[in-house]
Design goal:
By secondary structure, the chain is an alpha+beta fold. Helices cover 34% and strands 18% of the residues. The longest helix is centred in the middle third of the chain and has 23 residues, at 465-487.
Length: 878
C-alpha cells in the first residue's frame, strides 16, 4: 500500500460506492476504504429505494452514470408509483429491494470495476500539508497518499447508539464508530455539529399474523428506475410484475399511545441523553405522540427485507425506547401481538460537517482537494447520499483531469436543488429531498430526466455512444408525440392537446397506431409536456430572468462590511457561506431582497465591465406591506410653490397627505422633499417628512434616495400635486400586487375623451398591449392616424392618458441608481421611458377617469372650483 493513489474514498456506503465508481470510470486509480466489505451499500434503515423527490434523483443519477438505479432494478421485489392520482411532475417511483442482494450485487460491481481497488481498514486521520489534503492514516498506522480524498463517513463520526438508557459507540448496530477522524477534521479547521437519526426494529416473519393486516400489493405493471434496460426479464428476483412481494399495513392503538406516554422518560430522546437534532420528516413513535397528541392511530408499514419474506422492517415505528418497552409496544399493535424481534430499534447520534463549508462542487472551502458527500453533510437517505457521492466523484475527477466542474442548477435537476440547498442555505436538521423543495418541478419530471441531463452527461463523458444514440431516438419520438397531440383533432373540437389540458390522461388516448407505437415512458413524457405547456413556459421565463443573477460573480475575498446600508444579518450570513454569484447570494437563508440589491449595486459600481442591473420583476408575495411616498419639490418650473398654495384653506400638499393616510391598506405615509419650508409645513400638521438631496431629477429618484428609511415591500408613489386622487384606485393597485402577475412597475391609465387633452404635452399618453403591459409613453399621441384629421383622432382610436401614480416593488427602486442614461427619457422628459429601455415590465390598470393634476395657474384655479363644488355638494347632503 505504498502506492500514491489519484483518489481515496473513505466509506463504502451509498455515497462512497458512487464516488469511487465515478472516479474509476474516468480512469483514475481509486482506493475505496471500508471498515467492512461485508456491508457495502448497506441498507441500515428501510429496504427501499426512491419515493417522492427521491425517485427523481435516482433517475437523474442513472443518466449521469451512477449505479443505484440499475442495482435497485436488479434487487427490486416490489414497485409502487406514489402520488399516481396527482400531477406527473410530483409522482415518485419507489422500490422495495432485497437488501442482501442489493449489497452483494453492488460489491460485485465494485470488485470488478477497472481502476477501482477495495481495501478494508479503519481511517483515523486526514493527512494534510499547507491547507491541502495529501492522504489518510489508518488504525494500523499506515499512511495512504492520494491527490484527492472523498469523505463519505455516514453516521460513523463519533457515533453513539442509543436504546433506552443504554448507549455505546457505533455507527450502526454491529459496527464501531470513528472518533479519530472527527478530531482530525477539527484540527484542520472544519466545524462539526451533532445530528440524530434512528431505525425501527426488524421482525421475524413467522411471528406476524398477516391475515389480520391490510395487504398492499405492488403496481401490476413493469416499472424501473434505469433508462437503459429495455425490460426486466434478466432480473433474478423479479422476472415479472406478478412476482412482486406485498407489503402490509397496520396501525397503532390507544394502548400503544398509553404505553409510549408512560415510558417516554425512558426514551433516549426524551431523557436528555441525545442532544443532536433529529429528522423532522421521519420522527420516532414517541416524537409522533408529542407532536400529534390528539391522534391515536399512526400507520405502520411492514416491508419485506428479502424475497423470502423471512425478515420484516417496521416502517413508522422508529424509536429509542428500551427493549422491554419495544416488545410490549409490538403487542399493542394488531397483527404484531406475537411478533419476535430479530434486531431491536435504536437511535444513532453522530457528527456532521455543516455543508456551508463546501463549494458547489462539494469540495471543502477549508482543506483543498477534500470532498465530502452523504450524511457527513447533514442529509438523510440513501438517495441523497448516492447523488452527492456521484457528483463529488465526478468533480474530483474533473479537477484532477483539468476538466469542467459539474454543478447542476436548480432548474436542471433535483440533484441541483439538493446541493444548492446544502451549500447555500445550510441545514439545522437532517435534510430530506421533497418535491416541494424544487420551485421549478414542472421542468423536472422523472420521465424526462434523461432528456434534460443527456447533454450534460455527454459533455462530461458519462454516457457510452450506444446510450447517447438511444437517448437521441427517445428525444425524437417524444418531440413527435408532442407535435402529434397538438395537431390531431379531438372529438368535440380543438386538438388532443387541448383535451389533455382540460380533461385527461394521454394514456387514455388509444386506437391511434402511431401514438400507440411510442413506448409508455415516451407517451408519459410527451403528455406531461403538452398538459403543462403553459406553466412550463412560465417556469422557463422565470429561469431566464434569474439566470442574469447567476452571471454576476462575487469575489471570494469581498468584505461585506464595506457595503453601505447592508443589514448585519446579511453581512454575517454571506461572510460564512461566501456565495460565488449574485444568484447564489439571493438563495442564502435569512437574506432579504433589499440586501441582495444593495450587493448588486455595489458589485456593478465596483466592476464597470458588468452589464447594467436588470430591473427585477415582482413575483407573487404573500401578505405584502405597503407605504405611500409623496415626492414634494417646491421649485416647480411652471408654478413655483404650488404644493403650498392654498386650496380651500389648506395647502395642496396637505390634501394629498390626508387622502393618503385615509387609505386603509397602507401602513405609513412619507413626504419626501429637499425644501425646509415643506418640511416645516408637513411636520406642523403631524406628517412624517424625510429630507432628500436637491440633485434628485425625478420623484422616483427621490424615493430611491430615501428608501433605507422607508418601510414596506411596495412603495406607492403619489404626486404631491394630485389632491383629488381616488382612494379606491390605490386599493385597486394593492389588490393587483397580490395577484400572481410579474411586473417591475404598476401604474394607472385613463381614457382620453377629448381632442384637446390629446395634444396637450402635459398629458402623457400611453400605448399598451392587450394584457395591459405598457409599450411606450409619449407627450404626443400615438398612433398617428394617417388619413384622419387630427381633431378627429380621439373619435377613431381609444387613446389612453397616464396618471402620475406608481406602485414600485422595493427591489425595482433599489435598482434605479444603477440604470444607464436613456436618450428616450431625456428627449421626452419621461422617467417611464428610462425604465422601459432598461427592460422593465410596466403593467397598467385602467382607471375610469383622470384626476386633477396641478401644473399651471389655470390648473390651480380649476382645482379650487372643483373643491368648492365638492364641498358644497357634501354640505347639501349633510
Amino acid at each position: 500500500m505504498e502506492k500514491r493513489w489519484a483518489v481515496i474514498v473513505v466509506g463504502a456506503g451509498h455515497a462512497g460506492c458512487e464516488a469511487a465508481a465515478a472516479c474509476a470510470g474516468k480512469g483514475l486509480e481509486t482506493l475505496l476504504i471500508s471498515d467492512s466489505w461485508d456491508r457495502v451499500a448497506h441498507m441500515a434503515c428501510n429496504p427501499s429505494i426512491g419515493g417522492l423527490g427521491k425517485g427523481h434523483m435516482v433517475r437523474e443519477l442513472d443518466v449521469l452514470g451512477g449505479l443505484m438505479a440499475e442495482n435497485a432494478d436488479h434487487s427490486a421485489i416490489q414497485y409502487r408509483l406514489l402520488n399516481r392520482s396527482r400531477g406527473s411532475a410530483v409522482r415518485g417511483l419507489r422500490a422495495q429491494c432485497d437488501r442482501y442482494h442489493y449489497s452483494r450485487r453492488m460489491g460485485k460491481i465494485l470488485m470488478g470495476r477497472p481502476h477501482l481497488f477495495p481495501y478494508q481498514a479503519r481511517v483515523t486521520e486526514l493527512c494534510t500539508a499547507g491547507g491541502r489534503v495529501r492522504g489518510v492514516r489508518t488504525s494500523l498506522g499506515e499512511e495512504l497518499l492520494a491527490r484527492v480524498v472523498i469523505l463519505t463517513a455516514g453516521t460513523f463520526l463519533r457515533g453513539q447508539l442509543h436504546c433506552g438508557k443504554e448507549r455505546w459507540p457505533g455507527g450502526r448496530l454491529g459496527d464501531d464508530a470513528g472518533d479519530g477522524l472527527s478530531l482530525s477534521l477539527l484540527r484542520n479547521g472544519l466545524e462539526l455539529g451533532r445530528m440524530k437519526t434512528g431505525t425501527s426494529a426488524r421482525l421475524l416473519g413467522r411471528g406476524i399474523d398477516f391475515s389480520s393486516l391490510e395487504r398492499q400489493e405492488g403496481d401490476g405493471e413493469r416499472l424501473r428506475f434505469s433508462f437503459w434496460e429495455s425490460d426486466r426479464a434478466d432480473s433474478p428476483l423479479l422476472p415479472s410484475p406478478a412476482d412482486q412481494v406485498p407489503c402490509h399495513v397496520t396501525r397503532t392503538t390507544e394502548a400503544s399511545r398509553e404505553l409510549v406516554e408512560l415510558n417516554r422518560n425512558r426514551s433516549s430522546l426524551y431523557s436528555g441523553q441525545i442532544t443532536g437534532r433529529g429528522p423532522r420528516y421521519c420522527p420516532s413513535i414517541e416524537d409522533k405522540y408529542v407532536r400529534f397528541p390528539d391522534r391515536v392511530e399512526h400507520r405502520i408499514f411492514l416491508e419485506p427485507e428479502t424475497l423470502s419474506g423471512e425478515e420484516w422492517y417496521v416502517n413508522g415505528l422508529s424509536t429509542s425506547l428500551p427493549l422491554d418497552v419495544q416488545r410490549a409496544l409490538l403487542a399493542t399493535i394488531p397483527g404484531l401481538e406475537r411478533a419476535r424481534i430479530l434486531r431491536p430499534a435504536y437511535a444513532v447520534e453522530y457528527d456532521y460537517s455543516p455543508p456551508t463549508q463546501l463549494l458547489p462542487t462539494l469540495e471543502s472551502r477549508i482543506v483543498e482537494n477534500l470532498f465530502c458527500a452523504g450524511q457527513i453533510n447533514g442529509t438523510s437517505g440513501y438517495e441523497e447520499a448516492a447523488v452527492q457521492g456521484l457528483l463529488a466523484g465526478i468533480n474530483a475527477a474533473e479537477k484532477l483531469l483539468g476538466g469542467e466542474p459539474l454543478v447542476l442548477q436548480r432548474h436542471e435537476a433535483y440533484a441541483g436543488v439538493l446541493v444548492d440547498d446544502l451549500v447555500t442555505r445550510g441545514i439545522d436538521e437532517p435534510y430530506r429531498m421533497l418535491t416541494g423543495r424544487a420551485e421549478h418541478r414542472l421542468l423536472l419530471n422523472a420521465d424526462g430526466a434523461d432528456l434534460r441531463l443527456g447533454e450534460i452527461a455527454r459533455r462530461h463523458g458519462l454516457l457510452s455512444p450506444e446510450r447517447l444514440e438511444r437517448l437521441e431516438r427517445k428525444r425524437e419520438r417524444v418531440d413527435w408525440g408532442v407535435a402529434w397531440l397538438e395537431s390531431t383533432a379531438a372529438e368535440g373540437g380543438g386538438t388532443l392537446g387541448d383535451s389533455l389540458r382540460c380533461h385527461g390522461d394521454a394514456m387514455e388516448i388509444a386506437g391511434h397506431g402511431e401514438w400507440d407505437e411510442l413506448g409508455e415512458e415516451e407517451r408519459r413524457e410527451a403528455a406531461h409536456r403538452v398538459a403543462y405547456a403553459g406553466y412550463r413556459e412560465l417556469e422557463r421565463r422565470q429561469v431566464e430572468k434569474l439566470r442574469a443573477l447567476e452571471a454576476v460573480p462575487i469575489p471570494q475575498d469581498l468584505d461585506y462590511g464595506q457595503i453601505p446600508n447592508l443589514s448585519r444579518e446579511a453581512c454575517q450570513r454571506w461572510s460564512v457561506v461566501r456565495p460565488l454569484s449574485l444568484g447564489q447570494a439571493g438563495r442564502v437563508g435569512g437574506v432579504g431582497s433589499v440586501d441582495l440589491h444593495l450587493l448588486e449595486i455595489f458589485l456593478r459600481r465596483r466592476d464597470k465591465t458588468l452589464a447594467p442591473a436588470p430591473l427585477a420583476p415582482h413575483f407573487f408575495t404573500v401578505n405584502p406591506s405597503f407605504s405611500i411616498a409623496i415626492p414634494a419639490r417646491l421649485a416647480s418650473s411652471r408654478l413655483p410653490g404650488k404644493l403650498l398654495a392654498d386650496l380651500g384653506g389648506k395647502p395642496v400638499l396637505r390634501h394629498v397627505w390626508e387622502r393618503a393616510v385615509a387609505v386603509s391598506a397602507v401602513g405609513r405615509v412619507y413626504v419626501l422633499t429637499d425644501s425646509e419650508e415643506i418640511r416645516t409645513a408637513v411636520e406642523s400638521w403631524g406628517g412624517t417628512c424625510s429630507m432628500t438631496p436637491s440633485t434628485c431629477a425625478s420623484g422616483s429618484e427621490r424615493i430611491a434616495a430615501a428608501l433605507p428609511r422607508l418601510e414596506g415591500d411596495f412603495i406607492i408613489n403619489i404626486q404631491g400635486d394630485e389632491p383629488f386622487f381616488s382612494k379606491d384606485l390605490i386599493d385597486c393597485l394593492v389588490r393587483r400586487t397580490r395577484e400572481k402577475v410579474d411586473f417591475s412597475l404598476l401604474t394607472p391609465v385613463f381614457p382620453l375623451s377629448n381632442g384637446e387633452s390629446l395634444f396637450d404635452p402635459s398629458v402623457v399618453k400611453v400605448v399598451r398591449c392587450h394584457d395591459g403591459r405598457a409599450l411606450y409613453f409619449s407627450r404626443q399621441p400615438i398612433p398617428y392616424l394617417r388619413g384622419v384629421e387630427p381633431a378627429q383622432w380621439h373619435r377613431h382610436h381609444s387613446y389612453l392618458g397616464h396618471m402620475g401614480i406608481y406602485c414600485y416593488p422595493r427591489a425595482v427602486l433599489e435598482s434605479l441608481s444603477s440604470l444607464p442614461a436613456s436618450p428616450l427619457s431625456d428627449g421626452e422628459c419621461l422617467e417611464q421611458l428610462r425604465l422601459l429601455e432598461a427592460g422593465a415590465t410596466i403593467q397598467t390598470i385602467l382607471a375610469e377617469e383622470q384626476t386633477i393634476s396641478i401644473d399651471t395657474a389655470e390648473d390651480l384655479e380649476r382645482a379650487r372650483e372643483f373643491y368648492a363644488r365638492l364641498r358644497n355638494g357634501n354640505a347639501a347632503e349633510g
